[in-house]
Amino acid sequence: MKIKVKKQMEKKDLTQAVESLISEVRDMKVILSELKLDVKKSSNSDLVELKRERLNIGKDKILHALSFHDVRGDVYLFKEYYLKNSFTPIRRVSPRKYEYFAEGKWRIDIDGLRLMQIVQYNIQQSYYMVNRLDAFSIEEFQMNQEHIQQLSTEKYKKRLLREISQELANEV
Prior knowledge:
Helix content: 55-70%
Distance between the termini: 58 Å
Strand content: 5-15%
Mean pLDDT: 86
Largest sheet: 3 strands, antiparallel
Structural class: mainly alpha
């Protein structure tokens, strides 16, 4: 008799615990869906899409970034253009998984390969726009060109992605 009562009590306690957990999960789903809606409403209007383009930054800032001739200048341009708003078009979901905002929706990018192609192209185009022979000495123009070309190498893209990932982690 005592065993039956204990089993019934245990079943009743388990049933109540499960029902309580289910209720909490439902509440969390509602909260998450509300948060997603809030983010979609506010972010889509403030979000800069990640697409192939020249960065719309002042010429002075681009020249300043180019004067570094290394990844510091490239990260500086990235921050000036993409991280100025409170909603950035790039998210690091996990160490190897990124999402970027393009064509009105979030796209998944494993290892950040597509995202880096776009960012690298945009930075290169911005540098090409200001690196003119009449604006620099021949030596400085050549150093600028070497850095601009270096942006296309896989090794440099990986390094730039690492630095950008750190910046994204600092934003959160």
